[in-house]
Every structure is written in C-alpha cells, then in structure tokens.
Design brief:
With about 190 residues, this protein is mainly beta. The chain is about 0% helix and about 65% strand. A hairpin with a 2-residue loop joins strand 2 and strand 3.
Length: about 190
C-alpha cells in the first residue's frame, strides 16, 4: 500500500510505501529510501444512538448507528434499527443532555427523536358541500400528491384543493405537489 507523506530527507511531500503497521506505521520513501514512523490514523468509532421512532401515535425505542465525528441535523433522513427491523426515519429533534438542538455531533447526542417515513398515514379531509369527511390513507412515504388532481380513497373520489405541509406552507396552486411523508393534511372536494 502507498500513501503520500512528508519526507524529512527530501523535504517534500512524496509517495511512501507502507512497510509495517503496529501501534504506528513504518513507511519508506519511494524517492530516497528513507524509513520513518508516523502515527496510525485512528478509525472512527461507530456509536449506537438511542432513537425514539414515532409512527402515527405509537413510539418505539430503537437505535441509529453513526460515526462519532458525524454531524446530525433535524430533518436528516437516517435508518433506524429496531431489533430485526430497519426502516427509514426523519430526525425531528435532537436531544443533547437536557437541551433540544437543531444540529449536533454524534458523540454529543443523548437521543434522536424521529418519525417513520417509509410507510405513513396521510390524513385527508374531503368536503362534499355540506360536511367534511375525515379519511386516513396508508401509503408509501415517497408517494406524490398533486393539487387539482383526482384520487380515490376508501371508495370516495375527490380532487385535491390544497396540501398542508408539516414544515411549510399551504400549497394551493394547480400542479404543485408534495410527497406523502412531508404532508400534514390533504384537503379535497368530493366528486
């Protein structure tokens, strides 16, 4: 194996051959043949961070593996491991000690608060002129919904009038779309 390192004889960055690896690394300069020892690079340690995974009213304590120098942000999409199960989640909050923060190094994180995004339940309010009918639809978290398009849920045909996003505005313009795991509620008119 070859690496680039500073050679004290050549007084320059040159290619070196790795001769031996113990607590440190013995390398030989390929230009002048000078041998030297350099500190071995420390492998980043993997941490299993406690993750509370919410899925439509229920929560489970799971784990998310991160390297100790990784930085985690609210809104990141990660993979949570719950026993034998693994699924995609979105980080909603980060706990560091007794504080909630938007960003932190993995080594400082006490717990990650997340929500499952692979399979989600979308809440839909369908208005038929006199009353509003609440409907719940389980779907893939990546499924798209488009304003002013027609859908059928639980035998009810409706056209989407607007979408309310979890982290944003009300989307009303025809053709605007959002994916299911970002939607807080769909509003529609019955056909």
């Amino acid at each position: 194996m070859f690496i680039t390192a500073h050679c004290p004889e050549c007084k320059d960055e040159t290619e070196h051959e790795v001769v031996a690896e113990t607590r440190d690394v013995l390398i030989r300069c390929t230009t002048c043949g000078h041998h030297q020892r350099i500190p071995k690079e420390r492998e980043p340690q993997a941490l299993m961070i406690k993750a509370i995974v919410s899925r439509e009213g229920t929560s489970r304590v799971c784990g998310i593996e991160l390297a100790e120098e990784d930085e985690c942000n609210a809104g990141d999409h990660l993979v949570a491991e719950c026993g034998e199960d693994a699924f995609g989640v979105e980080v909603t909050s980060i706990e560091c000690g007794d504080k909630r923060v938007q960003r932190a190094k993995a080594a400082d994180i006490t717990a990650l608060w997340t929500r499952a995004i692979e399979q989600v339940i979308v809440k839909i309010s369908i208005h038929d002129g006199r009353k509003t009918i609440p409907v719940y639809m389980e779907c893939d978290g990546e499924q798209e919904f488009v304003v002013n398009e027609m859908y059928v849920v639980s035998g009810k045909r409706f056209k989407i009038s607007h979408l309310k996003l979890r982290d944003g505005p009300l989307m009303r313009k025809e053709g605007w779309k959002a994916i299911a795991h970002r939607i807080k509620r769909i509003y529609g008119t019955r056909l």
